[in-house]
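Appendix B. Chain record.
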Amino acid sequence: MGRLEGHVAVVTGASWGIGAAVAEAYAREGASVVVNNLPEDRMDSLAESVVERINQTGGKAIKVPADVSVPEEVERMVAIAAKTFGDVSILVANAAYSERVAWNEISIEQWDRTMGVNLRGTFLCARAVYPGMLRIGHGSIITLTSVTVDLGMAGFLDYVSSKSGIIGLTRALAREVGGDAIRVNSVMPGAIRTEQEVELNFDERELASLSAERQSIPRRGYADDLAGTFIYLASDDSAFVTGQVITVDGGWIHH
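Structure tokens predicted for this chain:
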């Protein structure tokens, strides 16, 4: 039996990158997984591929498209999860939006979209799974922040602001729901090579060089490098861990 046998997990933004890696890792550990994606053709197709890989290897997964910034879509997603597999015991609030823009060129629309997906979306998803976690008497909510919060990275003011807010949300929510046997923690990935990074036109050679210079482990990180941390935070191995930010960055930032 896997460490997550009998659990139901919702992983948002799981079409690709970190979300897809976590969804597949959870399925290998025995969880039934809801693979969420933004409702658009490309992300639908990518999410369907994640579900197919899980089901073809003996796991259990369904795809549920939903924009996590829209309350009604989030509620529908969680309702489908409960109807299909049972109440959600694990939430990974991974869905994120970012654009690389100089701070004084960020439009109000972009600012609102970034905050809507990253911060509001995390709140909405946590709120939606809470009643089910109360019913089953336990739960693990895992949020995603970013190493850019510690770096104060230029070119992503709205994104960094939203990811800073997620740390505050994580700590405050851990206080709110600890008495309900629900744990809330955050993962802070470092320079992880994902499809989204490629689309943002980062220079891979420059990033590889920076990783070698600044990280204690001198190589690029990949989505699979984070899977073990997410399994730990979702399982009973971390039963007394809450309100924490766990950095997975190859030793770039030291606390």
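Further analysis of this model is presented in Appendix C.
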